[in-house]
Amino acid sequence: MSAKQPVVGILMGSSSDWDVMKNAVDMLTLFEIPHEARVVSAHRMPDDMFDYAESAHGRGIRAIIAGAGGAAHLPGMLAAKTIVPVFGVPVPSKYLRGEDSLYSIVQMPKGVPVATFAIGEAGAANAALHVIANIAMTDAALAEKLKAFRVKQYEHAVGMTLG
Ligand code: RP5
Question: Which positions are annotated as binding substrate (predicted)?
Answer without folding.
Answer: 14, 17, 44
